[in-house]
Amino acid sequence: MSTALTPAPAAAPVPAPRPGPPARGGGRRTALLRWLFVAPALVYMAAFFGYPLVRNALMSFQRYTPTTYFTGEAPFTGLDNWRAVLTDPLFTDALWHTAVFTAGSLLGQFTLGLALAVFFSRRFRLSGFVRAVLLLPWLVPMVVAAVVWRRILDQEHGVLNGLLQTLGPTDGGVPWLSSPSVALLSAVLVNIWIGIPFNMVILYGGLQEIPRELYEAASLDGAGRWRTFRDVTLPMLRPVITVVLVLGFMSTVKILDLILALTSGGPADATQTLGTVTYQMSFLRLDFGQGAVVGNVLILISAVFAVLYLRANRTDFGHGK
Q: Who contacts 272 (Cβ-Cβ below 8 Å, separation ≥6)?
């Protein structure tokens, strides 16, 4: 007669003990170490960014000239500098020129840069070499590029006018840099030529990060090239587009060296921008207080777009809304 063996019931799992709160001394030590690691960057930011910003803001409320600079007694003038600058026709014209120059430059740089990025995203022979050649405008210093283009756009001896006269579209040379109605457009075209490589490189990198599976799925759904570009490429490229446009804006709105080397703000102040007006008021008129006002306006404009960039960047990468 056999007896059946019944298995013993399994033991209940023992819950793992919960970690207790960290020791108060260890938490303080960790926080102190974090601040020590961040301290060099904070000191650098305060010394090279914070102090100049505060000093420039204070200077805009003082009558700051070479005399008061060396004596160390710049009288407080309240809003006189701001009132004088904001009612100056030179400032209002420069504000409009800056808006036109920035909008035209960003539109041209982004459009052509995106077109080239899409073009080079398809492999073909010598694509790497051609792409490297197109980077040359970005590697040339701004002043050098402006001087070269000043020679190219010269009305009498410029290469461009010589080419136009050879082809026959014009009888005389076009006053690219000497006509108030054409000079600002010429400056925009030169800045577009300089900024295309930056847009192309960043957008090309963004295109390489788009999964190929999305294009295959769009092809299976019967989507054409334009629909694929509109419904797949642009939405996936949105964070990169935001970065390109905001960084391009912040570097273009304060541009100075290109305008000074190309037209010096002329003719008849037709290419004066906020950057050149700051230079003119500070180093030609020697009124540093009014120059600081224009500088503060530039800082405020850049700060607004920096905040917009941070909000858009946070939303695009899914860190909140």
A: 90, 93, 94, 97, 259, 265, 280
User: Does 221 score more than 50 pLDDT?
Assistant: yes
pTM over 0.85: no
**Separation of alpha carbons 229 and 222, rounded Å:** 13
Domains of the chain: 92-316 (1.10.3720.10)
Eight-class DSSP state of 122: S
Q: Can you tell me which residue has the tokens 């840099």?
A: 177
Angle at 267 (CA atoms; ends 260, 86), nearest 5 degrees? 75
d(CA 206, CA 110): 14
Residue 271 · residue 187 · CB < 8 Å: yes
Residue at 219: amino acid letter: S
Give tens-digit pLDDT for 139-150. 888 899 999 999
* Nearest residue to 194 (alpha-carbon basis) of 127, 261, 278, 272: 261
Q: Which two tokens stand for residue 89?
A: 């026709």
